[in-house]
Amino acid sequence: MSSGYHSSRLVHDARRDVVWKALWHYHFRHQIRPDDTVLDLGCGYGEFINNVIARRRIGLDQWAGSADHLAPGVESVVAPVTDLGAIAEGSIDFAFASNLFEHIPQEAFARVLDQLRGKLAKGGTLNILQPNYRYAYAEYFDDYTHVAVYSHVSLADFLTANGFEVIDVRPRFLPLTVKSRLPVSPALIGLYLAMPFKPLGKQMLVRARLRD
Q: Which residues of the chain have pLDDT under 70?
């Protein structure tokens, strides 16, 4: 993303850090081991990777300003997500992308997946959080940089077609945005994640690994 995007559509919002601290505590810490290497694709302000506890943490983004927001100990790679040349082969245990693949053409997404096949360690996973068009269609194109459309069904199918095995699909993992009048509370986030039915859920979470 350009610097203009980060000064208009995606300005820094401290509430997002509250959300990601809670998501780490209630969800992601159960999937990431202390000795893992974690790669955050399109890390932006670093809200996810800064909260991760792991042996090695890498934040990749084409926005040079991203490096200024990464916590001490997080390695910064300034590059587009279609260029993973700086990542060692077979080194990544947990690859993560939040609100990323709707911003790039499908052929670019396929290139990312092709490169990730060589970067993931044995047993490594790709974890994708992004808007689910099936539930977020009304506001999906309010973001002028959205160029690709996925539902939880089409995203899972696309991963499968590109050599991945989908192991978990959560169609309504989170609400779409923190831009509302509702309070951002870690306890409420934990309660929401535990609910079996999520009426406000418009973001999906899809987890996949390399197909044998």
A: 1-12, 177-183
